[in-house]
Structure formats: C-alpha cells, structure tokens
Task: structure prediction
Amino acid sequence: MQEPTAAETDAFERVPGPTAAPLLFLCDHASNAVPAAYGDLGLDHAQFARHIAWDIGAANLTRALAGTFAAPALLGKWSRLLIDLNRGPDDPTIVMKISDGALIPRNAAASVDDVAYRIARYHAPYHAAIKAAIDASLAAGVAPSLVSMHSFTPAWKGTPRPWHVGVLWDEDPRLAVPLIEAFRAEPGLVVGDNEPYHGRLEDDTMWTHGTMRGLPHALIEIRQDLIADHVGVARMLEIVARALRRALAQAGLKA
Ligand SMILES: [Zn+2]
Result:
C-alpha cells in the first residue's frame, strides 16, 4: 500500500473549543474526498456528488453549530465510501461494496489488509480523537453531551421521505426525547423519531462514545435538500440551535 502524503495523514478535521465544553459535535460523513492513493475507488466521478459518498450539507451545519455554541467539533475528513466512520471496525459494511445501486469497484476488490489499513489510518484516529476530547472534558469535571450530525437523501429507492429532521437514539432518552419534542414544537417541521433510520447499531459512533460511556447523546438527521446551500444551512442552524437549547434545558444539561 502506498503511503499517504503528509496532507493526507489527518483523518479528521477539528473545530477547536474549550476543553471543558458541555457539548461535543460530531460529523462522521462530512466529506466526499478520497485520498489520492485511492483515486476515485473505480467509481464514476459523478457518484461522489451523491449521498452515497457523504452527508450533503452536514459538515457546514456542524461547523456552524460549533460556532453558535462555542463548542468543539470533530468531522471526518474522507468519504464514507473510503471508510464508514459510523461503523465499528468489525462491521462488514465499514467498507461498502455496493451503495444505493452503485458498485464501488475498488471496495468490492479490497483485500483484508487494505480494509485493515483504512481502519488504522482513517478510522481509528477519528475515534481516538473523540475519546480524547471526552476524556479531557471528564478530567475537567464536565460530562459532555454528544450531538452527531448527519443528513439523509430525500428519496430512498424511489420513495419520498416525509421528514425534514430525524432524531435517532437507542436506549438513552435523556437528550433525544426532549430534542424530538423541541423539534416538534417548530411550526411545520416533520420530525422523525428513529426515522429515517433506527439509532440502534452496536459499535456505531453514538453507541461507542455515548451509550458505552454513559454520556447523553443524540443523532440528528437533516434532509439534505434543506442544507444543500448556505441559505439552507443558516435556516436550519437557527432551528437546530433553538431545539437543542430547549432540549438541553429540559434535560437539565448544560449548553
Ligand atoms: Zn450520515
């Protein structure tokens, strides 16, 4: 395997914030970039503009939220088609061979060593950074709430999705349930409770860093057409920030 260049050794982007911040924003699917050594993964370039490569708009919204709350954020630096940061290292879908009808040739042919390399180089450092940020907060006496930002495609396999926003959660209702209520208080907003996906996935980011560490957490999904440009991001920033503030207050958690 070719060694990555210096510019490619970073697995994630960090938005700095105070060590003892009560909030930590995460964005697993922030980027559609692929390290040069992997070229285009054998995939038609147009596919990289699609939701299969990244969560359209999620990175911009995450950075904006981090700014609004003066909180740190960690964002993945590479496409989910290279490695899916929201999967555990043992999940067979961590390197997707087919996504929404598109075969990814270089993934379909990936050796065990290639997958192990991608995990070590691009997946492990991101999760180590999340763990370190949480450890630093806890050492400073603050148990941070984790907010994971994603976006979803407006239609899946030809079926339109009705939700504007979804909150995904598993067994910890502390932040997720008040957040669903706060979103539902927004006029005209169609809110999914564990839609368009269920938040229960062992070894995913929220499970690893939220559930397993006993930290309040929620995963927010925004329909991607609502945050596809800066006007949309600004509009959703207001809504998400308002809902998050309400939910944190309701839950007795710090903002
Ligand atoms: Zn996502």
User: Anything to note?
Assistant: The chain has one domain: 6-250. The chain has a mean pLDDT of 94. Residues 28-29, 55, 150 surround zinc ion (CB under 6 Å).
